[in-house]
Amino acid sequence: HTNGAVITRASQPEIGWLLRRSKEDESMIQAIINACKDTLTTNSIHGETNSNRLLILHLGTRDAAIEDYAKYYADSDVEFMNLPHIHATSRSTRMLRAIDAAQCRK
Question: Do 57 and 79 contact (CB within 8 A), yes or no?
């Protein structure tokens, strides 16, 4: 975008079974940051100009493993949205849509 904002989506950080770092994930995060570096931005949260920091929003609950390994994502901040079990939330949304559709047909 012309203001330097970028929205990307990923399912999970690749921490692995033995809680090892993922160089691939770290490289992807750095590539996103590098793609935005030439754009003048203002961090609306802290009022910093040219902060070039990446805000990672994790929709699930706070997870110590993710939080610990996110420290290896340079120039990044992680915020947890604390949504309950995300798959249950998605299922509930589908059920509400089905009820709404059924009501519309009456």
Answer: yes
- Give the chain's domain count: 1
Which of 44, 71, 42, 77 has the alpha carbon at shortest distance from 58? 77
Residue 42 in any domain: the answer is yes
Q: Is the pLDDT reported for residue 83 higher than 70?
A: yes
DSSP bridge partners of 54: 76
pLDDT band at residue 25 under the 50/70/90 scheme: confident
10 belongs to a structural domain: no
Q: Please indicate, yes or no, if residue 2 is contained in any of the structural domains.
A: no
In angstroms, the CA 28 to CA 23 distance is 9
CA distance 54 to 2: 16
The DSSP symbol for 14 reads -
The pLDDT value given to residue 59: 76
CA dihedral (33, 34, 40, 42) in degrees, to 10, reads 10
Higher pLDDT, 65 or 90: 90
